[in-house]
Amino acid sequence: MKASDLFIKALENEGVEYIFGIPGEENLDLLESLRSSKIKLILTRHEQGAGFMAATYGRLTGKVGVCLSTLGPGATNFATSAAYAQLGAMPMMMITGQKPIKKSKQGRFQIVDIVRMMRPMTKYARQVVNGNNISSMVRDAFKIATTERPGAVHIELPEDIAAEEADDGVYPVRNVRIPKADSTTINEAVKMIEAAKNPLILIGAGANRNRIGDALTNFVNKTGIPFFTTQMGKGVIDDNHNLCLGTAALSADDFIHGAISKADLIINVGHDVIEKPPFFMKEGPDATKVIHVNFFPSEVDPTYFPHLDVVGDIASDINDLNEALTPQDHWDFDFYKKIIKTINKRLTKYFGDMRFPILPQRTVKTIRDILGEDDILTLDNGVYKIWFARNYKCAKPNTLLLDNALATMGAGLPSAIAAKMVNPDKKVVTVCGDGGFMMNSQEIETAVRLGIDLTVVILNDNAYGMIKWKQTGMGFDTFGLDYSNPDFVKYAEAYGATGHRPQSCEEFTETLTNCVNSKGVHIIDVAVDYSLNHAILNDLVKNAETLLEEEGVNNE
Hints:
Blueprint: H1 3-13, E1 18-21, H2 28-35, E2 40-43, H3 47-61, E3 65-69, H4 72-76, H5 79-88, E4 92-98, H6 114-118, E5 124-127, H7 134-146, E6 152-158, H8 159-163, H9 183-195, E7 199-203, H10 212-223, E8 227-229, E9 244-247, H11 255-260, E10 265-269, E11 289-294, E12 308-311, H12 314-324, H13 334-347, H14 360-370, E13 376-379, H15 384-391, E14 400-401, H16 412-422, E15 428-433, H17 434-439, H18 443-450, E16 454-460, H19 465-473, H20 488-494, E17 498-500, H21 505-516, E18 521-527, H22 533-542, H23 544-550
Parallel strand pairs: 1-2, 1-3, 3-4, 4-6, 5-6, 7-8, 7-10, 8-9, 10-11, 11-12, 13-14, 13-15, 15-16, 16-18, 17-18
Helix pairs in contact: 1-2, 1-7, 3-5, 3-16, 9-12, 10-12, 14-15, 14-21
């Protein structure tokens, strides 16, 4: 068969449902092969958006999301998407075209060494030089993309190779089973946990896999050890659990770090240093000990140098720990339980504040009240992400999709589109800053064309608000970060979506309720007030211990 036919057959063999992307002339043989396939082509308006959609598909399903571009500028537009998937541990394959490699009459026109460009940002990047190698390359790439730690892979298919004849045949798909930690390591971990006085559990993004949430919930319920999460670990155990301290949205000095500083042992499940640190380790005989529980060994850096690595299938290892552990009478969780009440009181302080422009805390409250436990909220990147990470409680995994690894702008809308495609029966809302929204706003047309029901909330402050907050926090005058926006209501209507501009908190609540229960794509332009960012996220956290004392919580 033709090599491009074999490529599509190999993708079908892997269970691929969609290919997101923008074909070019170098992809035309592959496009023709795709035309008669059961795989659906999702044409996007920018390759970066296609990559974000493919990565999010991988994040939600555990299968490899696939995206397609032409050579040169189309392929270079995948760079941010590749980093997004690689740092976020999302299985994704990028397929890019290339000019003929055997004989070409176009010289170096549009030719960039994409394979070399992709290698530092992927787990695997290769060019097909012989059509007979396609089946093995695709199987190998999919296996590598999904094996812990998941990530991005890349295959470049030159147009002359795509058109040549190749031998038929694909390789069977077989799952890779990860062994569990040995009994010696489990026993050592049990001794450390039982010897601790104030153990604490941290749940990271790597714990968001099948079976782990149930295993961790059983572990917490049996031992009574409180837990907190990283931003990307939210929902692995229900945030509403009475032993949940919340999310470490900042690296230090937040209320939750009052509890972390009390711990003499942290059982760190599924976290790695790619995600923004939820706390900073310290050296010394009295420093908090850390047990690293993950699919792969820890990578030592100045913020993270665990005392014990428990490496293997996380769910199996947590189950083994749970079976071997005996809850200890000397464990003391009273301080944690007091601080849980204090944190919840502080985080909900502004939920009832009805000032307008709307506070981000009030936005969190409104969206949380309207969406159900199974519904999905995606975030772009901006200062509001901190407020959602701290204040938005997730009852289930993958119901808040945020990026705390690459933390790129422009991913919120494409991620929401993919989330809705994967979960057509769930309500999906995306929250974007005005800056991040405009980076891939053209994908509104994609959403409208696909006929999906989606609500986009734009928090509008006519500025790059995250950087303004940092600028102010460093004592600098505001400079270089303000801009003007288009009329987002008219902008939405130009794409065939419906635009809204509420003028009060009450109207925002009513508008959002109507939008998530209506058909079609809705864009809500809501003015946001970030004036409390500095006071709450900079000044007050420096005095967290004082505030805890005011609430009657201390370290005694």
